[in-house]
């Protein structure tokens, strides 16, 4: 135990002394000497110690037996390499100093890319986001979007609103290594598609659905389409369709936009209204047997149904462990202790985040013990036996009545 403690203390002392005696960092340079980095392909030239240190010898174990370390034609793969200089002084502890090589390289045009959609459907109001990424570059580059005004201060993500006239235009991204003053350029060609389907929105704009009671607001065509006129026959003579106070009965209604262009065929585009509504508690029910007899091994199946809801709800059975993953059918094995309990079902409209709750009250009874003589043929036989017994009793009763009358009559005469 004591030896172990002494050994530990010794090693802690060694580590602490090493930490405290790391000497001045080596002096390194390269041809360009850019911000302490070595440009790929150049010579790294490091010197350790000083000429005054007459009593010390300096070396780079593994690389050089003298105070000078030369690494010619530095490659990007060598970035981050640690070179250690050893200071040996007679009668003193060894000292070491570390130099970490940082190589400056890249990016090339080949390593610079813009990611974005292959085509973009625009009505002139929607945002397009492009992401520029340069690989194989050190240190991290600075990004710029020289021909997108809205991205003057952007980083590697540029968000702007293209218009229809931007179709076919090239967007540039530059990734600049500020140490090397070297730039990789990427190009993204915009493929802007004129929106043929009408653009619709409502107050909440939930997953393309209109909440019951809200206003549906659709626009057809685009302001650029100067030679075309747009209308919603039956609803609106202009390009805008407004349907206030949308009702559930209107779900599925198809609205048609008409595009009339002089000297051209008429074109149409349709929008199908989807109304989000329900469910309420009143519209949510659990169907199941009014009573259920079991010995604890039988399955009970309950079915939950929500009506008057769009889109279809997601069902859950919050207080039935066995139905954690159930859909609208929940099957479990109730026991007698489950009698007179309330089983809940939730039907949730995930778009509206609205839930209808249904309750089923269990009525669990014990299965009666099976009858002892329960062969099917016995039914007819038993009937005959019963008839015989009843007949015998009646005959016996009649005999008794006759006997009693006779006996009582005789007694009266006798008294
Ligand atoms: C390394 O650097 C030292 C000090 O700057 C210089 O004297 C020496 O010539 C350099 N060696 C090479 C091979 O460039
Ligand atoms: C080398 O090590 C000795 C002994 O620890 C120390 O006195 C000296 O300053 C060191 N030299 C350099 C250049 O770090
Ligand atoms: C080198 O060592 C000698 C004797 O060991 C001593 O006299 C001298 O002062 C030392 N020089 C330095 C620079 O430490
Ligand atoms: C290059 O090495 C430095 C120092 O270890 C490190 O900070 C940097 O992340 C490395 N660069 C790359 C691109 O690996
Ligand atoms: C210093 O390092 C050298 C080479 O690794 C080794 O041979 C020597 O024993 C070390 N001296 C001390 C005092 O640790
Ligand atoms: C870029 O890629 C092209 C084709 O893949 C290749 O011919 C060219 O040498 C590459 N340029 C650089 C700098 O990597
Ligand atoms: C960019 O930043 C400058 C200074 O903060 C500001 O004046 C300018 O409006 C910004 N440009 C954009 C497009 O955000
Ligand atoms: C309909 O939507 C357009 C475009 O989003 C908007 O400019 C306009 O104000 C909206 N109209 C109504 C009545 O909300
Ligand atoms: C309207 O119809 C014309 C003629 O067919 C067509 O060129 C144009 O693209 C259409 N506009 C829209 C917004 O669909
Ligand atoms: C509109 O029509 C005029 C003449 O018919 C034509 O010169 C012009 O290019 C057309 N504009 C568009 C946007 O189609
Ligand atoms: C609402 O309309 C959509 C689109 O026509 C249809 O898919 C959906 O089944 C309808 N929902 C109801 C509950 O009728
Ligand atoms: C385009 O539709 C309008 C309205 O329904 C109709 O009056 C006109 O004749 C149609 N034009 C063509 C070329 O079909």
UniProtKB/TrEMBL annotation:
Record's keyword terms, sorted: Disulfide bond, Glycoprotein, Immunoglobulin domain, Membrane, Signal, Transmembrane, Transmembrane helix
Signal peptide range in chain numbering: 1-24
PROSITE patterns according to UniProt: IG_LIKE
Keyword Transmembrane helix in annotation: yes
InterPro entries: Ig-like_dom, Ig-like_dom_sf, IgSF_CEA-related
Ig-like domain ranges (all copies): 107-276, 279-317
Entry keyword NADP: no
Transmembrane segments: 385-409
UniProt protein name: Ig-like domain-containing protein
Organism: Littorina saxatilis
Highest classification ranks of the organism: Eukaryota, Metazoa, Spiralia, Lophotrochozoa, Mollusca
